[in-house]
Structure formats: C-alpha cells, structure tokens
Amino acid sequence: MIVALDNRSFIKVSGVDAEDFLQSQFSNNLKNIQKNQIQFNAYCQHQGKIIALIWVFKNKDHYCLSIPKELKEIVLSRLNIFKLMSRVEFEDLTDKFFQYGLIKEDYKNSYVINENLSILITTENRFDSHDSLEWERACIFEGIAEIFLKMSEKFIPQDLNLDINEIGVSFTKGCYPGQEVVARMHYLAKPKRRLFRFTSNFEVCIGDSLNVSDSKSLKSPGQVIRVANVDNDGFHFLGVFEVEHTKDSIFVNNDVNRLVSIIHE
C-alpha cells in the first residue's frame, strides 16, 4: 500500500558542519544511520520536552529531515538560531519532492523505518495513493509516535518509548538540548509514563485526556497523541499514560461513561 504523506515537510541539510551541528541538536547518534535507513530523533527544548519528532536520513553527502508541516517553521527557526558560525545550510524542498509512505511495499531507494514501513522520496507525483489515514493506522499498530503542534513541548523522549533499545535516543553520543534531563531519567529514575495503544468504540481526538478514578497526578494520567479509525473495528490510538494505572478502568476527558481499552502486547 502506498500513501501520499502530504502533511510532511522535507528539509535538506548540507555543509561541512552539517553532521556535527545536527549531532549537537538531536537526541540520536547520526553516525549510526545506515544506508537507506530512517532514524528517529527527538528535537527537545532545554527541559527535555520534545518540540518535534524528526525522521533523519542520509543522501550522498547531505542529510534530509522529514517533519510535520505544522512544525516546520518552528524547527527551522530554532535550528537557524543555534547554527551561529557553523557551516551548515537548510533548504526547504517541500514543494519540490513528494513523500510517500510504503506499507509492506518493497521499492528500490526507499528509506526503511522497520520491516513493514518505509518512505519513498521522489520528484514525480507518480502514484495513485491511498487515504492518509492508512498511514496513521499503520503507524499506530507499529507503536510509532508522532508529535503534532498541539502536543509539542509536552513529553520527554521516555514518554514516547524512544529510549527503548535507543530507537530515538542515544545515551552515549554527547550533549544536545535537554540531554541532562533525559539522561537523568534514564540513569537515576524510572519513567512514570509510557506510550501505549488503545481502542475505543467512539471518536477521540489528539490532546484528549486519559483518566482513572484514583490517580494522584497533578495533571491527567495520560493524553491521546495519535488517532485513526480502523474500519468497523472502532478507533485505535496511541496515548502517553501512567504505567501504574494500566490495569485500571480508563476513561476520556473525565467522562466515566467513555471507557477505552489499553492493548497489552
């Protein structure tokens, strides 16, 4: 299945200092990117909260970034503030390239996310693509988080499971914004919240709260971050939620009649 990712921007990063600069800004180790591989990176502010999740890959002598369009200007503005004297250039190629999500498709020169999902970048609008919700569904079933504008600067990488197997965070590569907070959680504490998949028989929205009756959290125990309707199987969504309450009755927006189910895998 092929899905046009029209909601994503495409940024080329070049220059002799491109790798060193991006290493100083993003959470993962760019030196570990393999050929035709997508690497997840969190772009955090100084408190360790994620501004955006960025797909990073290499193409010859430069790097490419794929991010939600609604966060493009925020990310580019911040990168330009911090580049100072670094010899690095950012080129917005969103209008020159098409991004396609491939679900269980094998195309030459695509960039792999995992065994089921990959990305194809092309200058030609060459496919009759499926509805973008198909990509949301696939990512939800794979447990792949996304940060949209409404959820920007609300979660640390551990909340989104990016630390597990260091899929989106390297704890050995060195400093980046928010690194001290993220590392302190890794070495000295245990995450209170994790990313889980849920189901419901009613529509939920990004940013909805997930509640339980006896949570002592000053805020809601969890929030919805990614949603898709799954044919006749109701709604499936990803939510950040307190680990200690995963076996409790969970409801949406403090409405005890709107119960959702967590999927334990």
Major sheet size, sense and barrel closure? 6 strands, antiparallel, barrel
CATH class of the largest domain: Alpha Beta
CATH superfamily of the largest domain: Aminomethyltransferase beta-barrel domains
Q: Got a strand count?
A: 15
Overall mean pLDDT score?
92
The secondary structure category is alpha+beta
Care to give the gist of this entry?
With 265 residues, this protein is an alpha+beta fold. Helix content is 15%, strand content 34%. It has two domains: 2-130, Aminomethyltransferase beta-barrel domains (Alpha-Beta Plaits); 149-263, Elongation Factor Tu (Ef-tu), domain 3.
Task: Please characterize this protein's 3D structure.
This protein is of the alpha+beta class and about 260 residues long. The protein has two domains: about 1-130, Alpha-Beta Plaits; about 150-265, Elongation Factor Tu (Ef-tu), domain 3, CATH 2.40.30.160. Helix content is about 15%, strand content about 35%. The protein is built from four helices and 15 strands. It has helices at about 20-25, 70-85, 135-140, 180-190, and strands at about 1-5, 10-15, 40-45, 50-60, 60-70, 90, 100-105, 110, 115-120, 195-200, 210, 220-230, 235-240, 250, 255-265. The strands form three sheets. A six-stranded antiparallel barrel has the order 10-13-12-11-14-15. A five-stranded antiparallel β-sheet has the order 3-4-5-2-6, with helices on one face. Strand 12 (about 220-230) and strand 13 form a beta hairpin. The longest helix has 12 residues, at about 70-85. The chain is globular, with a radius of gyration of 19 Å.
